[in-house]
Amino acid sequence: LEEEEASISSSLKIIIIDDNMHLRSMRKSIYKQCQDYIIVSSSSSKKEKSVYLGIIYINTPLSICIQQNQTRPKNRLIPTPIIENMSFKLEPPDPSKASW
Q1: For residue range 59-99, what is the model confidence (pLDDT) as tens digits?
Q2: What is the DSSP letter of 23?
Q3: I need a labelling partner for 94 at 20 to 30 A (CA). Which of 15, 24, 31, 53 fits?
Q4: Cα angle vertex 29, ends 26, 34, to 5°?
Q5: Is residue 79 a contact partner of residue 65, using CB atoms and an 8 Å limit?
Q6: Is 78 within 8 Å of 69 (Cβ atoms)?
């Protein structure tokens, strides 16, 4: 068991995706891609996950997003209507609808 755990931990990889993913369909697409990485355990024919997906959701008020945007360099400013539109369309994570 210790050898197996050592093998798993030595092959552990962490991928961080920094993106708004404001639509559930965007997050689901990433989840489906993660499911392509299923391994078969050497001790049995049982499939085990080798990739797990976690989401960190930060609910920042629209007014703060607009305010913080104004502190960006001029060439990196996002037009306020785009921020407002994204806020309007935002589909927050909902464990009851997507328990994946």
Answers
A1: 999 999 999 999 999 999 999 999 999 999 988 888 787 66
A2: S
A3: 15
A4: 135
A5: no
A6: yes
Contact 20, 86 (CB under 8 A): yes
Q: Which residues contact 47 (CB under 8 A, 6 or more apart)?
A: 38, 39, 40, 41
Q: How many CB atoms lie within 10 A of CB 98?
A: 13
Quote the pTM value: 0.61
Element (H, E) at 38: strand 38-40
Q: What is the torsional sign of CA 36, 37, 38, 43? A: positive
| Helix boundaries (H) for 1-100 | 2-10, 24-34, 62-69, 80-89
Question: Rounded to whole angstroms, how far apart are CA atoms 18 and 33?
Answer: 16
